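--- STAGE predict ---
source: upstream dedup step, 1 unique chain passed
mode: sequence only
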Amino acid sequence: MQPAHVLFSLVFVMGALYGVWKLGLGLRRKNLRALPINPVWVEFLEKNVRIYRHLPTPLKEELHGHMQVFLHEKNFEGCGGLELTDEIKVTVAAQACLLLLNRKTNYYPKLTSILIYPSTYIVKNERDETGLVIQEQLHLGESWETGMVVLAWDEVLQGAYNSHDGSNVVLHEFAHQLDQEDGEADGTPILEKRSQYQSWARVLSNEFTKLQKKSFNRLTTVMNDYGATDACEFFAVATETFFERSQELKLQYPELYEELKSYYKVDPLTWS
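--- STAGE serialize ---
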């Protein structure tokens, strides 16, 4: 057999195996989504995730299905002495899956592990030439392109319970995961159609500049000033605000609201 034929055969076999794997993955996820929700999970959601109470019944059912897949596929790890419980995992999964409703999803394909600390944790950023730590920062959460999200449980719970303050660490960090799916943390996630990118770039760039100016002049806005840091933080903060302070966001940033509504395929204004 000629080398070219061997290469072609290998490519064909690998393609066939990938097709079989993808088909199996799709069937497994379909079966997981069809599983009945654990009533105890619903109790956790009703108690902890305030926005869940306002979801229409069809979206609640879709959320339940996404959570089944998410909890089956992602690894949770307790850090800093935290003992993981179903309540912790369900509370995180529900908020992460809120961003997947009503649209085609691959369930954060790069993400493998969620690390959870009991509370705000310290990250050692810089060391001197001897290895001594010279700079530390307190963190509420992080999102890594290498397949990891880190969260502080007390912040997760507070953000889930107060669904109207525009501050939600899970929505923030998982918005970063969506942003990072194309390999770049640039404030532009993968959009449904190529034609959407031009409008997205124009609107988010304009609104980002607007927020930067307001932040520089110490003017109050519905969005947290942290969104003025860079484009990727702007998208994450805009996501938190879209889901938790939708009415104010639509009033102050109408074009941004419409872009996010088009991307997320939901309108939180209709949930209240």
